[in-house]
Amino acid sequence: MGIENRHILLLFSISAIFEVVLWTAALRGFSGCNSRGVDDPQCCNQIPGADEQVGNMVKSLMGTNQNLTRLQAQVKSLQTQTGNMAAFMTKVPICTFYALLNESTVPGHINQSVPFDQVVANVGASYNNDTGVFTANTSGIYKFTWSIETTYENYIFSDLMHNNITAGSSLTGDKVYNSVTSGFAVLFLNEEDSVWVRIAESSPNAVIQSPMTTFSGFLISK
């Protein structure tokens, strides 16, 4: 039994003991009246009060038992859910990455992959920061997010590519301020499928700015 469960049971036990003590005191007062006789003026006042008090205590004890039963059922249900979640997590391989652009760069030629070269996390070692390409190490449903920042008076079209097929697109650009735009996609990948971000089109003087240019993804479900 966990510490929380023991604390709960202790609390209810103390409450029940306290009510039993009060109940006992009331019964003793009732018995004392019987020993003196019901004609005693004090007993005339004690007997009705004792009956009501005992009745209330019985109801309170019944309610306490019902609350304890419900609480135990809730704790058991929570323990079951926690166990199921832990079992699920052990079956799903962890695969997640997050990388960003270390230094600002020009887009280069069309369809060039963006070199997110500064790796912050790469659990599962599926992201290659030399190529900017993520390669799935297991089949499943993945979520990907990318952000592209560029300088003012310029624009950049970017695409999220899945095995050379466009899976999502984003447009970044503003006439007055530097701008950043994010896109995301949820994809089913087979093992060895590849995902990366490419520059589809840009203005002549556009620059891909760091450090708000980022690329991340993780496995949702195998």
Helix/strand layout:
Blueprint: H1 3-36, H2 41-91, E1 96-100, E2 118-123, E3 127-128, E4 133-135, E5 140-150, E6 154-162, E7 165-174, E8 179-189, E9 194-202, E10 208-221
Antiparallel strand pairs: 1-2, 1-10, 3-4, 4-9, 5-8, 5-10, 6-7, 6-9
Helix pairs in contact: 1-2
Spatial order of strands in the largest sheet = 2-1-10-5-8
The main pleated sheet reads as:
5 strands, antiparallel
Say how many strands there are: 10
Structural class, by secondary structure, is: alpha+beta
Q: How much strand content do the residues show?
A: 35-45%
Helix content: 25-40%
Q: Shape, please?
A: elongated
- What is the end-to-end distance? 34 Å
Gyration radius over CA = 35 Å
